[in-house]
Each structure stands twice: as C-alpha cells, then as structure tokens.
Amino acid sequence: MEVTIEEKATFDRELKFVLAAVEVDRRMDQELSRLSTTVRLPGFRPGKVPRKVLEARFKDHITSTIAEAFFRESFPDALSKHDLNPVDQPELVFDKLERGQD
Asked: What pairs with residue 13 in β-bridges?
C-alpha cells in the first residue's frame, strides 16, 4: 500500500492510497464469491450465477464495497504513521478499481 499526502490548505489534506493490483484482484474475487452465494437472478439457480454476469451487473457495488473496506482498514494506520489528527469526517473519493491495475 502506498500513501501520499498533499496539503491543500491549513486544515485540509488529501491522502491518496494506491492499492496493489494483486490486492485489488484478491478483494474482487472475495466479493464476487460472497455475492455469488446471496444473489438471485432470473434464469440462474441460486449460487450458480457466472462470475462474468455478476461482475458486469454489480461492478459499481463491488468497487464501492472494496474501496470502503480498504479505507476503513488503511485510514487509521495512515493517520498514525504520518502523525495526523483529523478535525472532520473524511470524504471518500475513489477514481477506479479495475482488475489487474493498481
């Protein structure tokens, strides 16, 4: 995990987290496995929906779930490592999470 900090204003910092491609793939596979057991789609038996269909249909949900989970895990470590004390709730903005890319 790579963290960069950019100072925007006196009390405004932007932390950028870069998640390794291997980790993105692993987390996507975990989320797809979890979804495959719970999702019910017409034309498919429960638990038998192909991964490609799940990925295409629930891509936004999968990426937001992964980003939020990663943020919850990484944010406290980044704060303590860089000796930062937040004065407000952080805002989570993620660019993209694609399979095979950092």
From this structure: 7
φ/ψ of residue 24, rounded to 5? -60, -45
Ordered alpha helix ranges (H), 20-100: 21-38, 51-57, 59-81
Residue 5 CA to residue 78 CA, distance in Å, equals 10
Q: How far is Cα 32 from Cα 91, in angstroms, rounded to an integer?
A: 26
Distance (Å, rounded) from C-alpha 11 to C-alpha 86? 8
Mean pLDDT for back-to-back runs of 10 residues, the chain (102 residues): 85 86 90 88 88 90 88 88 87 79 79
User: pTM value?
Assistant: 0.77
Beta bridge partners of 16: 4
Q: Helix (H) and strand (E) counts for the chain?
A: 3, 2
| C-alpha span between 14 and 99 (Å, rounded) | 25
